[in-house]
Amino acid sequence: MTVREFYRALCAIIPRELGCDWDVDGLNVCPDPDREVKRVLVALDATTEVVDKAVAEGYDVIFTHHPMLFGGLKNVLADDYDGAKVIKLCKSGVSAISFHTRIDAAEGGVNDKLALLVGLENVEVVGDERIMRVGTLAQPMSAGEFAARVKDVLGAPAVLCADAGKKVHRVAVVGGSGKSEVALAIASGADTFLTGELKYSQYCDTDKLNLLVAGHFYTERHICPRLCALAVKVAPDVRADTYNSCKVTII
What we know:
By secondary structure, the chain is of the alpha/beta class. It has two domains: 3-100 and 221-242, NIF3 (NGG1p interacting factor 3)-like (Udp-n-acetylmuramoylalanyl-d-glutamate--2,6- Diaminopimelate Ligase, Chain: A, domain 1); 107-213, 3-Layer(aba) Sandwich (Udp-n-acetylmuramoylalanyl-d-glutamate--2,6- Diaminopimelate Ligase, Chain: A, domain 1), CATH 3.40.1390.30. The chain has helices at residues 3-13, 48-56, 81-92, 101-105, 110-117, 143-154, 182-187, 200-204, 224-234, and strands at residues 26-29, 39-43, 61-64, 95-98, 121-126, 132-141, 160-162, 168-177, 192-197, 210-213, 239-242. Strands 5-6-8-9-10-7 form a six-stranded mixed beta sheet. It starts with a helix and ends in a 9-residue tail after the last strand. The mean pLDDT is 95.
């Protein structure tokens, strides 16, 4: 199966139409669309380390959640962070594919899995972009108790908790950055909102719902096994491996 065929097969399962209009995911770098896909490296991010590993170890495709060129390119320079990665991939013939908001919204994607991991039941899709999930806990608990659960099941080094004094029962979740989704969480009737990133000012004004922030990486890294499974589903002979693209720790 060629890179071109591999990408088309992936899109047949998780189409671009599921994603947000502003998104830039898809086939981000493709120096050789006819290259045979034998090995796929899956990560949350196409960092320099991920690119170096893919090139050095003979991978044909990097398959990530976050788009490699999210901010867009005005030029391609060897001394520029993104430019250097593009040049290295093009020289080596390695392609980069990303499924971003389309797999946030997809059934069984980032947010369905996040809701499942933290123990939500009766999960609903909320909002026009189909990204937020809202569900209920079988047994209500305090914000502190729920934060401890989230920390444990996500393997996060810490969880920030802005406690509005409400029992946690109806929970909205958005993996990654939820800075633009707080109003939607409130409108959904949630008493608690779990996400990966918020702005400082949002922590300070939290009388309407509890806010829990577990880190962008930790609220989304569980999608990597799904990306591996997708790769193998469309190309059963492909070897797909995952790699931890985040090196941030709390000291």
